[in-house]
């Protein structure tokens, strides 16, 4: 049990993630249109921004390969 706890609660080797989070928070609070947001709203925005790169919101851009295959079909 202790080994599992050590694995789950270990300190990360770098602080890049936390630095990015502080940077994003600074940008939100520095924006004059957003400086009146509640703490809860800012936390929600930061969660979305931090996890946005982990979620695929749009299909991959295969337009170029699709158009090439259509051109090849038309040549036959």
Task: Provide a descriptive summary of the structure in words.
The chain has helices at 2-8, 16-30, 39-51, 63-75. It is mainly α. The chain has a domain at 25-52. Helix 2 (16-30) packs across helix 3 (39-51).
Keywords, please?
mainly alpha, HAT C-terminal dimerisation domain-containing protein, single chain, 76 residues, RNaseH-like_sf
SSE blueprint and pairings:
Blueprint: H1 2-8, H2 16-30, H3 39-51, H4 63-75
Strand residues, percent: under 5%
Overall spatial form? extended
User: What's the SSE pattern?
Assistant: HHHH
> End-to-end distance, in Å?
66 Å
Structural class: mainly alpha
Helix content: 55-70%
Structure described in brief:
The protein has 76 residues and is mainly alpha-helical.
